[in-house]
Amino acid sequence: MFDINVNLILGQMVLGMVNGVFYAILSLGVAIIFGLLGVINFAHGVFFMLGAFVAYGLLQFFGLGYWPALILVPMIVGALGIVLEVLLIRHLYRLEHLYGLLLTLGMALAIEGFVRIVFGPQGLPYSMPDNLRGAVNLGFMFLPYYRAWVVVAGVILCFATWYVIEQTPLGAKLRAATDNPKLVQAFGINVPVMLTLTYGAGVALAGFAGVMAAPILSVDPSMGTNIVIIAFAVVVIGGMGSILGAILTGFGLGILEGFTKAIYSEASSTVIFVVMVIVLVTRPRGLFGKVG
């Protein structure tokens, strides 16, 4: 039942950090959009999927490889998010959260269906950059350079985002605009534009993660659906709206998933949801959620 192999456990935990990067970035975007805009963005996984497909399209139709895509794709996905926010989502800010959930769920199904029509239902390959091929010997495993890059880039991106929101004047204005938009607007700040850009930035994070995931995962129309459920579980465990909670919980659960895969692989796909149930029962506001 249980297979205790130290090297295997350490290796799976390191690889779990790669999944943890995607969990952290996606749940970070979900937490930003919910915490600052009050919208449960169920379409977030679709923007992750679009990031991978836009990168694939840039390569196939324009010959632009991984590194240009890493810059262009977040801007393209973020711009699409801005259009959807202006046309649809901004009309829900004063309504109950359920309306936002239903709208973004419908958006997700429509966009995923469109991608299936254009690209087909099968997975598509996407090559990693040549300068990140190969692996480094850690003693207990050979870690591919590309996965090491994903971990380093993901950690920097997540904590840079946290710093901007929690430690800078721009972040203070965003939080103030959420708490008291009329007062902030009285100081000459265009609150609707700020909220629109916030939504665009949140989905751009998902697009960035999609590009990084493309060489690891199959570029598949359902890749966003599969991971967004875990992203929401991460947000619930970390605490709805908690930026730091989403980051730390995402990385932590990725490592826990890898550990479980090493000792009892059958439970690796459910361990995150077991943790979610335990946290909801013992601490309903999440590990980092605000009390009161």
Explain what you see.
This protein has 292 residues and is an all-alpha fold. It has one domain: ABC transporter involved in vitamin B12 uptake, BtuC. It is 71% helix and 2% strand. It contains eleven helices and two strands. A two-stranded antiparallel ribbon has the order 1-2.
Give the key terms.
292 residues, ABC transporter involved in vitamin B12 uptake, BtuC, 11 helices, 2 strands
Summarize the structure.
The chain is mostly helical and 292 residues long.
- Total strands: the figure is 2
By CATH, the topology is ABC transporter involved in vitamin B12 uptake, BtuC
Shape summary: globular
Distance between the termini: 43 Å
SSE arrangement:
Elements: H1 6-37, H2 44-62, H3 66-87, H4 97-119, E1 135-137, E2 142-144, H5 145-167, H6 169-179, H7 181-186, H8 191-213, H9 223-238, H10 243-263, H11 271-282
Antiparallel strand pairs: 1-2
Helix pairs in contact: 1-5, 1-8, 1-9, 1-10, 2-3, 2-4, 2-8, 2-9, 3-8, 5-6, 9-10, 9-11
